[in-house]
């Protein structure tokens, strides 16, 4: 079983974008407020959006199931108010639930949260509970910067975030620390903002004592952990200088990196530096980088190929492809069993 822990519904039908555009326009002109009932997406549209994209690529590349969430770049928590984010989150999460309902063997749901700048994360708890308990999802995406590139929230280790962590622990589901689009022109969304956020989250975990307070909380840092594996010596050294415990006990009992690194040398470095038990297979397809690498003739985001070609033992490859995911997402096995 090959489990891809990182996929977004980047190919959702255009009606979803039309609704969002109207929702955003209505922030200035309430007369344009779209009714939720006006958004009608048929099952055939959903099937069509997946058959020629994610499902086709699953078949071609040999993955079995994708842990699937709303498109990250369009979460855009910085737009509008808390009510805007709540409506947008519910619509997107409901759409993911329909995807999973149509293809229960191919997709398992993860939700976006109705975060909004300046709004306590505690306000996201109700939607998290709805998605886990009612929609059968197995995790959440947590945006560490709902301001979209201006970083106006306290660090992830601040008590500001604790009500959300308490609920994640109670529900026994992990969160992927995943920013959305950038409205700061300095930071390209997928090329800079994403990687900055991954790196930033890790350093916050070193500085804080989050996992002392939440020893069973599990957080996934995507995109291969940002700059962290490449600079592993720096982070170990900083922890040492700051009199923090060694990273193995201070952070790495709770933090996992995915394999969304789009070339072989990068994956080889990740696998060499980060313990196998902390790595989950992910591709983030279809999304961040869509082209073919002319030096290999293969898609950059065909990340399974890099793991297959690595020097890891067969047993370690299986842990990355499958075994670790069951530990990080305890609800996954039951969902797959229910799908048959
Ligand atoms: Zn992503």
Please explain how this structure is put together.
With 340 residues, the protein is an alpha/beta fold. The protein contains 14 helices and 11 strands. The mean pLDDT is 97. It has helices at residues 14-25, 43-51, 54-61, 82-102, 125-134, 162-171, 189-207, 210-213, 232-241, 247-250, 264-273, 303-309, 314-328, 332-339; strands at residues 3-9, 65-70, 107-109, 111-112, 140-142, 175-177, 219-221, 255-258, 279-280, 292-293, 298-299. The chain has one domain: Metal-dependent hydrolases (TIM Barrel), CATH 3.20.20. The strands form 3 sheets. It has a 6-stranded parallel β-sheet with strand order 4-5-6-7-8-9. It has a 3-stranded parallel β-sheet with strand order 1-2-3. Zinc ion (ZN) binds next to strand 1. Residues 6, 8, 72, 178, 222, 284 line the site of zinc ion (ZN).
Total beta strand runs:
11
Question: What's the average pLDDT?
Answer: 97
**Beta-strand residue fraction:** 5-15%
Query: What count of structural domains?
Result: 1
CATH class: Alpha Beta
User: Helix segment count?
Assistant: 14
In CATH, the homologous superfamily goes by the name Metal-dependent hydrolases
Measured between the Cα atoms of the first and last residue, the distance is 13 Å
Following the backbone from N to C, one meets helices and strands in this order, namely EHHHEHEEHEHEHHEHHEHEEEHHH
Gist of the model:
The chain is α/β, with parallel strands linked by helices.
Blueprint of the fold:
Elements: E1 3-9, H1 14-25, H2 43-51, H3 54-61, E2 65-70, H4 82-102, E3 107-109, E4 111-112, H5 125-134, E5 140-142, H6 162-171, E6 175-177, H7 189-207, H8 210-213, E7 219-221, H9 232-241, H10 247-250, E8 255-258, H11 264-273, E9 279-280, E10 292-293, E11 298-299, H12 303-309, H13 314-328, H14 332-339
Parallel strand pairs: 1-2, 2-3, 4-5, 5-6, 6-7, 7-8, 8-9
Antiparallel strand pairs: 10-11
Bound molecules: zinc ion.
Zinc ion (ZN) binds at residues 6, 8, 72, 178, 222, 284.
């Amino acid at each position: 079983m090959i489990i891809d822990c990182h996929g977004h519904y980047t190919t959702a039908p255009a009606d979803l974008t039309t609704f969002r555009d109207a929702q955003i326009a209505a922030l200035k002109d309430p007369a344009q407020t779209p009714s939720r009932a006006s958004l009608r997406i048929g099952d055939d549209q959903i099937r069509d959006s997946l058959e020629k994209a994610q499902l086709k690529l699953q078949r071609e590349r040999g993955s079995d199931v994708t842990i699937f969430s709303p498109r990250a770049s369009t979460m855009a928590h910085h737009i509008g108010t808390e009510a805007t984010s709540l409506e947008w989150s519910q619509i997107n999460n409901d759409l993911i639930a329909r995807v999973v309902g149509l293809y229960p063997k191919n997709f398992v749901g993860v939700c976006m949260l109705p975060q909004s700048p300046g709004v306590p994360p505690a306000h996201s708890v109700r939607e998290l509970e709805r998605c886990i308990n009612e929609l059968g999802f197995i995790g959440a995406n947590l945006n560490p910067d709902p301001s979209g590139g201006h970083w106006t929230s306290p660090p992830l280790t601040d008590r500001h975030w604790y009500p959300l962590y308490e609920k994640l622990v109670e529900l026994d589901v992990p969160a992927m620390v995943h920013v959305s689009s950038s409205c700061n022109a300095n930071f390209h969304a997928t090329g800079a903002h994403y990687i900055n956020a991954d790196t930033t989250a890790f350093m916050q975990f070193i500085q804080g004592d989050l996992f002392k307070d939440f020893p069973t909380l599990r957080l996934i840092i995507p995109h291969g952990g940002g700059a962290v594996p490449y600079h592993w010596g720096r982070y170990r050294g900083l922890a040492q200088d700051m009199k923090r415990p060694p990273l193995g006990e201070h952070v790495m009992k709770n933090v996992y990196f995915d394999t969304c690194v789009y070339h072989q040398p990068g994956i080889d470095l990740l696998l060499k530096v980060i313990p196998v038990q902390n790595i989950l297979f992910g591709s983030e397809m279809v999304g961040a980088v869509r082209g073919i690498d002319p030096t290999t003739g293969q898609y950059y985001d065909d990340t399974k190929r890099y793991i297959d070609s690595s020097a890891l033992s067969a047993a370690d490859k299986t842990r990355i492809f499958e075994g670790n995911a069951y530990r990080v997402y305890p609800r996954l096995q039951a969902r797959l069993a229910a799908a048959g």
